[in-house]
UniProtKB/TrEMBL annotation:
This is Uncharacterized protein. InterPro entries: ARM-like, ARM-type_fold. It comes from the Eukaryota.
């Protein structure tokens, strides 16, 4: 069996052989009439619809006359033959037809009208191709390897794929086709061309959404377009973006905001659009546009719609503002404060599993801000309710949610990045208040995780939190409540079904409080959890 690399090299070789055959046929048909041979090929396809090898040869022949002035007269008849090919036909036949139709697009896209013939209508081509996104991907991938040096053709290829995308009926087809563009850009080195790709995409998507806004399936259509746009921009970098490119970035942002305004009732569509906005903020870092107005719009969307996807661009803003510096924009702090306050209204305080992505996004933003702006955030934003939500999030059944809650609590109470901050006295009092107000609930939840959770990383994380909280009460002094072993024993009594009868679990849990390192605390928690799992089998 050939490896994937060998198969790919074989496909490239086949594509090169096909091109050589087509070039030879083109030369031949300059010397002999085409019509009799074309009629013969069409008659073979009609007479033997299941003779796939012969049909493949016929389409290879037909593809050699695409540029001939007589071709437009026969296109509709040929397209009818292609439409009659069944979806279950051999992959080689499907890919041969896809390659043929790509040749038709390359020569007639626009559409163009022959000076002495009928117009080639391209839409039926895209409609048929949209049934076979994987085959389109395959022929484009091979052509991309063969013709990488022909840079002027790349934009045409991207436009071809985008036209197929808008006729897809399933989101998976969109993801496959847009994925080709993304991977192509990731695997090839471009300088200033990236921003011009973006400009072409914005023009194409804007045109399509505008032209299709009254369609019955406008929501599906817009979702597919913005899904493609989000995947494509994920393959771009901000390399080569300069101040002269600012109008392109602004036009792309305007498109995103128009989509959100028009389809604000559809959260998934807003999510894809927010992904594009994240890229635009990252890409424009070097040209320093004014993002305050964009932030105002995002905050407004978040307040009225409650979609957590509107939080994601703020992580990009944070990088743009200077994540590694002490500077933080007033507008950024103002808008984040609104987000944190509204998040507490949107998120259910007792159920961390109802909207875990929302909780993750809020705490990720807050964690990254306080890691570099600890004093400023604690003194200017009341995070009391978010601390409670994070403590409840430790009980989440999703590891990703737990990790975000755990990371936030560690950053807040242990502050591993403290070496770059000089804590002010006001900060100490705020942290002590938050600690004393939530320590019992956090300890209780950590114990429950150690006793019941099946995910070892979560168990170890709670072991570390218990160790930190014990150190806080014992080392930091009177302002912090101390965690006594009697409290641990009392809490363990609330879980009789989880405890083994010999009582050794209580002793092992107390050892966590006296652990000399985070690794020791984590390992003790994992050991307790393992003992209980064996005990209950």
């Amino acid at each position: 069996m050939m490896s994937a690399c060998q198969v790919h090299q074989k496909n490239i070789l086949v594509a090169e052989v096909r091109e050589n055959v087509k070039m030879g046929l083109k030369t031949l048909f300059q010397l002999i009439p085409i019509q009799p041979h074309l009629n013969h090929m069409i008659s073979i396809i009609r007479a033997r619809p299941c003779d796939y090898p012969r049909i493949i040869s016929c389409f290879l022949f037909i593809s050699s006359i695409v540029e001939n002035s007589d071709f437009p007269f026969h296109f509709n008849e040929i397209m009818e033959l292609i439409n009659n090919i069944q979806i279950g036909a051999p992959e080689l036949l499907i890919e041969t037809c896809c390659g043929f139709l790509k040749d038709v697009f390359d020569h007639y896209h626009g559409p163009k009208k022959s000076s002495n013939g009928p117009t080639i209508v391209i839409d039926p081509v895209f409609k048929w191709l949209a049934q076979f996104p994987e085959s389109v991907h395959n022929i484009m991938e091979v052509r991309g390897e063969v013709y990488t040096e022909m840079f002027p053709a790349i934009n045409s290829d991207f436009r071809f794929i985008n036209n197929v995308v808008v006729f897809c009926r399933e989101i998976t087809g969109v993801e496959i086709l847009a994925g080709y563009i993304k991977n192509f850009m990731l695997n090839h080195s471009f300088e200033h061309e990236t921003i011009y790709f973006l400009e072409n995409f914005v023009y194409f998507y804007s045109e399509d959404i505008s032209n299709n806004k009254n369609r019955d399936d406008s929501v599906r259509f817009a979702l597919f377009v913005m899904t493609a746009f989000s995947i494509v921009t994920d393959g771009m970098t901000n390399k080569g973006v300069i101040s002269e490119h600012l109008p392109i970035i602004e036009k792309a942002s305007d498109l995103c905001l128009k989509v959100i305004d028009h389809f604000k009732d559809y959260e998934e569509l807003c999510l894809k659009t927010s992904d594009v906005l994240c890229y635009l903020v990252y890409a424009s870092e070097a040209i320093n546009p004014d993002h305050e107005k964009l932030s105002e719009r995002l905050v407004e969307y978040y307040q009225t719609l409650g979609y957590s996807c509107f939080i994601r661009p703020y992580l990009a803003f944070l990088l743009y503002l200077g994540y590694e510096t002490r500077f933080i924009g007033e507008w950024f702090l103002r808008d984040c404060k609104v987000i944190f306050e509204k998040a507490c209204d949107f998120l259910p305080p007792e159920d961390s599993n109802r909207d875990p992505r929302h909780l993750e996004r809020v705490l990720r933003l807050l964690s990254q801000i306080i890691s570099k702006h600890y004093d400023d955030i604690l003194e200017n934003i009341d995070i009391e309710r978010l601390v409670y939500l994070a403590s409840q999030g430790l009980l989440s059944q999703e590891e990703k949610t737990f990790n975000q809650c755990y990371g936030f609590l560690i950053e807040l109470f242990d502050h591993p990045t403290t070496e770059i901050c000089k804590k002010r006295p006001e900060t100490h009092s705020i942290v002590a208040r938050l600690y004393n107000g939530h320590v019992y609930q956090i300890v209780k939840n950590c114990i429950e995780v150690i006793l019941t959770q099946k995910i070892v990383t979560c168990v170890k994380g709670c072991g570390r939190i218990l160790s930190i909280f014990c150190s806080a009460g014992g080392v930091r002094g009177g302002a912090y409540l101390k965690i006594e072993k009697e409290l641990i024993v009392e809490m363990l009594e609330k879980y009789p079904n989880e405890m083994c009868s010999d009582g050794s679990i209580s002793d092992e849990m107390i050892k966590i409080l006296n652990a000399r390192s985070k690794e020791e605390a984590e390992n003790l928690a994992a050991m307790i959890n393992s003992i209980l799992n064996k005990c209950h089998k």
